[in-house]
Amino acid sequence: MAATTVTRFAPSPTGRLHLGHAHSALLGWQAARQAGGRFLLRIEDIDPLRCRPAFTDAILEDLAWLGLDWDGEPRIQSRHLPEYRAALERLEGMGLLYPCFCTRAEIAREAAAIGHAPHGPDGMLYPGTCRHRPPAGRATRIAAGEPYALRLDMTAALARLPVPLDFEEEGRGRLSCDPARFGDVVLARKDTPASYHLCVTHDDALQGVTLVIRAEDLLPATDLHRLLQALLGWPAPRYRHHPLLLGADGKRLSKRDKAPTLAALREAGHSPAVVRAMALGAIAGPATGAVRSAASGL
Ligand code: GLU
Question: Is 44 in the pocket of ligand 1 (CB under 6 A)?
Answer without folding.
Answer: yes
